[in-house]
Design a protein that fits this description.
By secondary structure, the chain is of the alpha+beta class. The chain contains ten helices and nine strands. The chain has helices at residues 110-118, 127-140, 145-161, 179-195, 202-208, 213-224, 228-246, 252-258, 264-275, 279-290; strands at 19-24, 41-46, 49-55, 58-62, 66-70, 80-83, 89-94, 123-125, 165-167. The termini are far apart.
Length: 291
Amino acid sequence: MIAKKPTLKKLSPSFGSSILVKQHVEQVDKNDAFWHFHPELELIYINQGQGKTHIGSHLSYFNNSQLILIGSNLPHNGFTDRLTANGTETTIQFKSNFLGDDFLSVPETANIAALFERAKKGIRFKVETKLAVGPKIEELYELTGFKRVLKLLEIIDYLAQTDDYNLLNADGLAFEAEAQDSAKIGVIFKYVNKNFTHHIALDEIADKVSMTVPAFCRYFKKATGKTFTQIVNEYRVVHATKLLSEELDMSIADVCFECGFNNFSHFNKTFNDITGKSASNYRKEIKKIIS
């Protein structure tokens, strides 16, 4: 069970600032990686790291840098399992109206208003944008006062104009959450995250949120747009991509069973359905990248 409700995380910028900027170069405390949301938008830049991206109903594994913008009230977990050599994670959190309630209603900020709306789905920016914006985000940590505001506006303006991105949550959980529902979904995802490597029966998970199996299935599908089995299989496939890229001596059959699948052909079909390629082709592509 989660020790505290992952419903609303209150963020406190330093005195005299409307923008919260955090930066660290060591592994994040796992206690900070819980299912939560907040009214502030969150911009995360990791220059070298590895971990899971879990935003709304989107789940994936990254093994390099990443730049992500999370919209207001979109539930998410912590990101970095570990930073690699010289790795740094910089996080910026700010409210959409940090420059006033009328900021997004003037014609000059129409693109920014559209960006903030897209961010409710979760946005992952691609290589060109990471290269252009990443150093500016890291620089923001050293700035204060109006210089920090100007630099953030420069970053936001660039992100608002680029088309170099993917939406992460287009078919899922854009979640203007009720507190009770957020806590319930948080319990479910927390349990799956810890137990996906073995079979999770529907009555087992339904009992965790004090629901009957039919009520749980209806609730979960309505909340996430996916069945519980689909979510569990996504967790397993994400873990498989991690093992395929990091444990190159592990056989694909061993990866299959390590991730919680008990049937090799079912693993291959599910992996292909979710990633668009076979596990063997995925590993071949990884080997080409790192060779």
